[in-house]
From TrEMBL:
This is Amidase. Transmembrane segments: none annotated. The lineage of its organism: Bacteria, Bacillati, Actinomycetota, Actinomycetes, Pseudonocardiales. Residues 24-381 form the Amidase domain. InterPro entries: Amidase, Amidase_CS, Amidase_dom, AS_sf.
Amino acid sequence: MHEEVYALSTDFGAYVERFPLPETGIPFAVKDFLDVAGQTTRNGTPGLGHHAATEDAEPVARLRAAGYVPVARTTVPELAWSVRTPGCRNPWAPDRDAGGSSGGSAVAVAAGDVPAALGTDTGGSIRIPAALCGVAGLRPTHGTVPMRGVTALVPSMDTVGPIACTAADCLRVHRILAGTAEPAPDTVEGLRLGWPEHLWGTKIDPEVLRVVESAADTLRAAGAVLVPVELPLGHRHARTAGFTTMLYESAQLWWRAYQDDPSGLRGRAIGQLKAGTEVSRDDYDAARARAAEIAAEVDAAFTEVDALLMPTLPVTAAPADTDVVELGGRGESLENAYYRLTALASVSGHPALTVPAGLTAAGLPVGAQLVGPRRQEALLCLLGGAIEAGPPARALARARTGRTCS
């Protein structure tokens, strides 16, 4: 690691603060939602929730004890309430979005500055930027990684996980964070993968679908069997149940603090918190009940298949100045498009992994998403590694070498 490398990251808007470079140890970056001893946690806000950390957040402490060294804190939108990260540009196309809310962490890895970074994932905030920036990102099973010292936004959905170059790198970090090393199959051969095509239908960029179908072909060639799966509750209700939960819980945590100090926020998060105050307790309880039904539906699917395979997002990185994308001949808000396929695991609490599956004809990365049974992160990373070994993903890795992580 060298100072000029950090200058590159700063061009992409990845860092808000740099720490001394380590002489030994494995460097990693930390989303500005996790405490690092002796540093100020800012949560992406002008002042709301700022505090000087006297000790590391538990995930940071566990990595430090394993020989990792935090070298930078990465940019986050205010209270992580966005699928975009202000100031972060995509290393593959600087005029395009890097995603959010862990956009700074994804950029730090994709730009080759650190081999791994910590992010948080509530509605997709690890998987979205990782997919857009052509790296891997793991949302662990809800509740498996301790959250002490991590800024809370939506406790029933919040998770901490790694962003890294590959699925294997993600698993290595995750096992440290969770303190477990769950077993996984030795081979992909014979595994049954659900293909829930109804979740995206025609509302997907054809180039994205082509790349993810190539990932499916790679898994078939490795001996996996793909079968159609229907998740009607998840299809109809995951986004609404998740969004209602996010609005309500974040407002419960942060609205009063904002009212006490309105200078603490200045952007989109204000409107989200205000909207959360208008969600009734009955509507919140109904959303949580629906989430439990969706979780049961996904659990039931895993009695028939070993994991689910789907796109991470139905689009590639959007131009930074657009808020609407066209899919299936109709306009869709960028916010909804980015969140649409990550919502399922966020609401159900199951682990989900995105891996770089290949490039579009325009040279933009596409992520393939794997969702698995609870505490089966190793299974997902085995499958993710198989996708990464396929020709389209290898082409992406070759294009990444030398200017992004290798």
